[in-house]
């Protein structure tokens, strides 16, 4: 009734020679006739036998389970013990790393300029939006006039007596998603004003107010300004905020009985970047400077092209007195109806002079991009939308005049404009981009006359061409040979790609033609599949990809992440490097990746291999990407390693070629890692993921360590 297996198990036990442990006598004693177990005369004996077999099976299973566990652990330890040996050849100094290697790309998208880096707090300050009073609320007797003192910005408002002692005339400005002010900080209010009917003086009262306040008074800062001339003059007064408010309103009352005209109404923090009056928001500009960029590309991007040529970015309109710089439609205003901002314009307050000045103050080479005669090709399919090749003369002259503006003597036409703006010394322009991400034969046939004219007049200027909007494919394959034919100095490549692309591109530049133009990786970011927003894993893959840029510094001379900025209430594109609201900003993990490369770029590439192959995340390399550099100025050896696997990787760094007396000291390891791969820094948690530095000690000329899963590390040693 039970089992016919007693003999089998007795045999197995004997074969295992476990007589003492299992007491086989017990089995022999209680085994029934014919080796059958059943209900018979010795039921108690039968039960004992069954129990013994059960215990045997249980203990045997446990024994083998433990054995399997031990074997698994041993196998794992054996695998784990296979150290990834990275060999760095210190004697073989490789390519020189260009000062421009890691930089910044600025485009006015996501309210990056007006409402962002440009510190102006008043929206539509000159009443030039197509809806003239957009951004303003008026009350009492306010009328719009169009014969103002500035030719390109003719509109202004007239404030008249409302006609009753208990009525008031004035206007409120909403700013960009509100006006952000901080308690105790000073704000410079300025306005061009006059008394159209003459008189000895009229007054306006300027206030910062909280329209949602439950207090007795909405105003928390107030000053009275006297307008005392029939002629247009600039007036200013300082407001000191009594509270911190990210959503304040600027309010202007007519505070006397007469009539006042107001034009170019402006409000700036006194404490701007470097203290410039027409300045930049300090925290955002500081974030840029803290990267230590080598190149600064501006002003875009697609806004260089414009939705149409009439609204392309025109650099000549962006210089000179700020009051006379005309309004321009932003290329991104109409692009995304799912995130639509009909009040998104460019004041040109942040213009080419300010871009050049910022480049200089950050220590970055300026790289302006100019229109090549093509409107945005994404938005225009017909040839008539573009400038014919035979009509490009004015566009080419714009390029020549820009070089004069940047580098020309103060006695030249455009050099004098620069000097009059406060910078008689040249800006030392060396690079100029012609066209953004153009494609098709339309682009090289327009680029060619630019190159001919620029080579003739300014052979010292290096010209940047484009390989189109994609990282590979038909247009890419067409444009690269064209850039070689035209002898462009650099070719701008763009790639907004998913994780799989970045993981597969570690060796992208290893086999590029070294005799042609150099590479400018001008726009790139990892766009996570199904999660196109900032998160750690995307930044990690960017770091991994950048090891390939660095290893190929002989061909890659520039690289800039994009986009740079995004307002949390005004974004249209993500991910982005720096996010901000009206008062605060946050540096993403992608920012810190860029900063780690820029601050540790070294001066020369060092060959780095694993099993005599570059470490590019290839099969058998355990998800590792790596590069190494030497810094001649600091006498430092720097190794960057990205572990894109989900396992801890044992790593050894072996520095070959050093002399016996060479000592590697002051070892440091800077890491970026996160347990949550979907996490990033936010305004609420700005320091959730930041670089962490720890000292490391190296024995001789080799370091043996472990690199955690999904971690980017920078190892630094000083050679003495």
Describe the structure.
By secondary structure, this protein is of the alpha/beta class. Helices cover about 25% and strands about 30% of the residues. It is built from 13 helices and 34 strands. It has an eight-stranded parallel β-barrel with strand order 2-14-17-18-19-20-21-22, surrounded by five helices. Strands 3, 6, 7, 9, 10 and 12 form a six-stranded antiparallel β-sheet that branches. Strands 26-28-29-34-31-32 form a six-stranded antiparallel β-sheet. Strand 28 and strand 29 form a beta hairpin. Residues about 1-50 and about 65-80 have low confidence and may be disordered.
What's the SSE blueprint?
Elements lengths: L5 H10 L3 H4 L1 H7 L12 H38 L3 E6 L12 E4 L30 E4 L1 E5 L10 E5 L9 E4 L5 E3 L4 E9 L7 E8 L9 E9 L5 E8 L4 E10 L5 E10 L12 H8 L5 E4 L29 E2 L15 E2 L5 H11 L2 E6 L22 H15 L5 H8 L10 E4 L7 H16 L4 E5 L7 H13 L3 E8 L1 H6 L13 E9 L9 H16 L4 E6 L3 E3 L10 E3 L4 E3 L1 H11 L4 E3 L1 E2 L14 E8 L4 E8 L5 E8 L7 E10 L18 E4 L6 E6 L3 E9 L1
Helix pairs in contact: 3-4, 7-8, 9-10, 12-13
